[in-house]
Specification:
The protein is an alpha+beta fold. The protein folds into 2 domains: 43-195, Endonuclease Chain A (Endonuclease, Chain A, 2-Layer Sandwich), CATH 3.30.870; 197-344, Endonuclease, Chain A (2-Layer Sandwich). Helix content is 43%, strand content 21%. The chain has 11 helices and 15 strands. The chain has helices at 3-35, 52-61, 81-92, 108-118, 152-157, 168-182, 204-214, 236-249, 265-280, 315-320, 331-344; strands at residues 43-46, 66-71, 96-101, 121-124, 135-138, 142-146, 162-166, 192-193, 196-199, 218-223, 253-258, 285-288, 298-302, 305-309, 325-329. An 8-stranded mixed sheet has the order 8-9-15-14-13-10-11-12, sandwiched between helices. The radius of gyration is 23 Å and the shape is globular. The model is unreliable at 2-9, 11-15 and 18-38 (pLDDT under 50).
């Protein structure tokens, strides 16, 4: 055999082996989705309203090593006492439990003292920041995130929106975010795993604009608090509403449910101003919830995508506060929340 022919065959063999290795790598990476590897698609469950507490208690009871949570406040009452009991049991068997609460809420000081007495390492957020994020992350594997505060009112009575996410990549982001809050450091950059995307603080406007610009069929919004800034063209809320208007003008069906209450006149006044502002922009499908029920949810549905979390629509929620929001592209979840929207609107 000529030397050139031998070299040619060797090269061909090496190329074939390399092709086979690439194929096997792709194959086994795909198999990881089915056998529980790190590429497994996220599992997402609706944990809104009365599902929240049983979902939370279940993931806490199954904790093996670590529970981290951030909350605007922890009001200890008969309902949240069930959470306290589980946290007590966790610390007694050596689980590392840490909590960070917003310092400006008056009863958080007492609550943090009670938590510390149980063996929970709890502390208040810095006075230099406002912590509005509401999430639990357990063992770096499971996240519960949404709008629910830790009180009987929020858990037992309000209209809230929360999801349980089982995904190590998403959970690791929330774990890193928790320690950024804990150490007063900047939040990590956003991350995506499958059909779930974390929206880091300060990036909510960008996510909304992207969704509005690509909307084809419907946009549904449930929002507790919203402020308008008519004279501030570069305000993130103004920009967001401008893109919402453009979507409506393209023929996208836009509906909004606002919180209206029988006790909070200042919020009612603010909401009425927003409604009038949007009506002047030719928005028509604007609704209020039942005044006897607090709708504290922050929910956006765009076609088959859902955004939910802790942010109200204001400059603070969009740009300043420590928030926790996720974008989930899932047809089934979007359908569930569309049904939820129809139940709430009046």
């Amino acid at each position: 055999m000529l030397k050139s022919e031998k070299n040619s065959k060797n090269i061909s063999k090496k190329v074939s082996e390399k092709t086979l290795l690439i194929f096997l790598a792709i194959f086994f990476n795909s198999c990881a989705v089915f056998i529980g590897g790190k590429s497994t698609a996220p599992l997402v469950e609706n944990a809104s309203n009365r599902k929240y507490l049983p979902t939370l208690l279940e993931i806490l009871k199954n904790a093996q090593k670590e529970v981290l949570f951030s909350q605007l406040y922890f009001h200890i009452d008969d309902t949240t006492g069930k959470i306290i009991s589980v946290l007590d049991e966790l610390t007694s068997r050596g689980v590392d439990v840490r909590a960070i609460l917003e310092d400006s809420v008056q009863w958080n000081d007492r609550s943090s003292n009670i938590l510390n007495a149980l063996g929970v390492y709890a502390k208040l957020d810095s006075t230099a920041t406002f912590n509005h994020a509401k999430f639990f992350v357990v063992d770096g594997k499971v996240v519960l995130v949404g709008s629910t505060n830790l009180s009987c009112m929020s858990i037992d009575r309000n209209n809230e929106v929360d999801v349980l996410i089982k995904d190590e990549r998403i959970a690791e982001w929330f774990r890193e975010y928790f320690f950024s809050l804990w150490n007063q450091m900047p939040a990590p950059s956003g991350v995506r795993s499958g059909f779930v995307e974390v929206i880091p603080p300060g990036k909510l406007k960008d996510a909304f604009v992207r969704l509005f610009d690509s909307a084809k069929d419907k946009i549904k919004i449930i929002i507790y608090g919203i402020r308008i800034y008519p004279d501030e063209k570069e305000n993130p809320v103004t920009i967001t509403l401008d893109h919402l208007k453009k979507a409506k003008e393209r023929g996208v069906d836009v509906e909004i449910v606002f919180e209206i209450s029988d006790y909070n006149e200042s919020l009612n006044k603010q909401t009425q101003e927003v409604k009038k502002y949007l009506e002047e922009m030719s928005f028509k499908n604007l609704y209020f919830d039942d005044p006897k029920t607090i709708t504290h949810a922050k929910l956006l549905i765009v076609d088959d995508a859902v955004v939910l979390g802790s942010s109200n629509w204001g400059y603070g929620g969009f740009s300043l506060y420590r928030e926790a929001n996720v974008l989930i592209e899932d047809k089934k979840l979007a359908s569930e929340f569309c049904d939820y929207f129809e139940r709430i609107k009046q």
